[in-house]
Amino acid sequence: ELLAPATGAFSGQQVVITAGPTREPIDPVRYLSNHSSGKMGYALARQAQRLGAQVTLITGPTQLTAPNGVKVVAVESAMEMLEAVEQEVNTAGIFIACAAVADYRLAQVESQKIKKGDENMQLQLVRNPDILATIASREQPPLCVGFAAETQNLASYAEDKLTRKKLALIAANDVSDRRIGFNSDENAMTLFWHNTQGELQQLPLERASKDQIAAAILHQLTALPEWKKR
Ligand code: CTP
Ligand code: CA
């Protein structure tokens, strides 16, 4: 059974959420992206707002409509998403990075459409900044929540991201299971965090609607030792 926070548990809280994919332009008509639908991030926005939070949703391109009353900032590339997050997160107590940010962008974006030529071509890519790690490594960071989409070694990769990115909580899911994740309305995840002794804790969330999963993530957030310390 999934737990959900009590009504008003987030009242007075400012929450910034990233959602959806990013698009990394190649030329005026092409881009690199991924299969993220944005549904999980929008569900988090909806649930946080329902619980009384003031929500800002920074979203890559999706087919979704944001919930009423949520401030929406629409972006395309990872660099635009980082800029928007840095603008919006300063007064927020909670940052939830749900977006599937492209890890790389084009080293050079062509100003004109690339013409077809040789049989083979190469695109040169450079690393994008890690938006979540950038915010979490601030001197006085908000409570940071991350996601980890993995196809193998779920627990060890998730713990590594939790520790390395200095997160309060990480929600990990197995994206090799095609019934859930990405464009699905359902999801199944395992939440990981550290207790006050620094021991890794985990909570599996059985397959459920993304709204139910979102509520359970927000519930776990309110149960963390860091939540009370703020
Ligand atoms: N993330 C981010 N900015 C990036 C890359 C990732 O904010 N440039 C955030 C995602 O929103 C997610 C978390 O970091 O909350 C983990 O993303 P994921 O792609 O699973 O991990 P990476 O650190 O990018 O590692 P890898 O893709 O190699 O597994
Ligand atoms: Ca990545």
UniProtKB/TrEMBL annotation:
<dbReference type="GO" id="GO:0015941">
    <property type="term" value="P:pantothenate catabolic process"/>
</dbReference>
<feature type="binding site">
    <location>
        <position position="161"/>
    </location>
    <ligand>
        <name>CTP</name>
    </ligand>
</feature>
<comment type="pathway">
    <text>Cofactor biosynthesis; coenzyme A biosynthesis; CoA from (R)-pantothenate: step 3/5.</text>
</comment>
<keyword id="KW-0210">Decarboxylase</keyword>
<keyword id="KW-0460">Magnesium</keyword>
<keyword id="KW-0456">Lyase</keyword>
<comment type="similarity">
    <text>In the N-terminal section; belongs to the HFCD (homo-oligomeric flavin containing Cys decarboxylase) superfamily.</text>
</comment>
<keyword id="KW-0479">Metal-binding</keyword>
<protein>
    <recommendedName>
        <fullName>Coenzyme A biosynthesis bifunctional protein CoaBC</fullName>
        <ecNumber>4.1.1.36</ecNumber>
        <ecNumber>6.3.2.5</ecNumber>
    </recommendedName>
</protein>
<dbReference type="GO" id="GO:0015937">
    <property type="term" value="P:coenzyme A biosynthetic process"/>
</dbReference>
<comment type="similarity">
    <text>In the C-terminal section; belongs to the PPC synthetase family.</text>
</comment>
<keyword id="KW-0285">Flavoprotein</keyword>
<feature type="binding site">
    <location>
        <position position="165"/>
    </location>
    <ligand>
        <name>CTP</name>
    </ligand>
</feature>
<dbReference type="GO" id="GO:0004632">
    <property type="term" value="F:phosphopantothenate--cysteine ligase activity"/>
</dbReference>
<dbReference type="GO" id="GO:0010181">
    <property type="term" value="F:FMN binding"/>
</dbReference>
<comment type="function">
    <text>Catalyzes two sequential steps in the biosynthesis of coenzyme A. In the first step cysteine is conjugated to 4'-phosphopantothenate to form 4-phosphopantothenoylcysteine. In the second step the latter compound is decarboxylated to form 4'-phosphopantotheine.</text>
</comment>
<comment type="pathway">
    <text>Cofactor biosynthesis; coenzyme A biosynthesis; CoA from (R)-pantothenate: step 2/5.</text>
</comment>
<feature type="binding site">
    <location>
        <position position="113"/>
    </location>
    <ligand>
        <name>CTP</name>
    </ligand>
</feature>
<feature type="region of interest" description="Phosphopantothenate--cysteine ligase">
    <location>
        <begin position="15"/>
        <end position="230"/>
    </location>
</feature>
<dbReference type="GO" id="GO:0004633">
    <property type="term" value="F:phosphopantothenoylcysteine decarboxylase activity"/>
</dbReference>
<dbReference type="GO" id="GO:0046872">
    <property type="term" value="F:metal ion binding"/>
</dbReference>
<keyword id="KW-0511">Multifunctional enzyme</keyword>
<feature type="binding site">
    <location>
        <position position="147"/>
    </location>
    <ligand>
        <name>CTP</name>
    </ligand>
</feature>
<keyword id="KW-0436">Ligase</keyword>
<feature type="binding site">
    <location>
        <position position="103"/>
    </location>
    <ligand>
        <name>CTP</name>
    </ligand>
</feature>
<feature type="binding site">
    <location>
        <begin position="129"/>
        <end position="132"/>
    </location>
    <ligand>
        <name>CTP</name>
    </ligand>
</feature>
<dbReference type="GO" id="GO:0071513">
    <property type="term" value="C:phosphopantothenoylcysteine decarboxylase complex"/>
</dbReference>
<comment type="function">
    <text>Catalyzes two steps in the biosynthesis of coenzyme A. In the first step cysteine is conjugated to 4'-phosphopantothenate to form 4-phosphopantothenoylcysteine, in the latter compound is decarboxylated to form 4'-phosphopantotheine.</text>
</comment>
<keyword id="KW-0288">FMN</keyword>
<feature type="domain" description="DNA/pantothenate metabolism flavoprotein C-terminal">
    <location>
        <begin position="11"/>
        <end position="222"/>
    </location>
</feature>
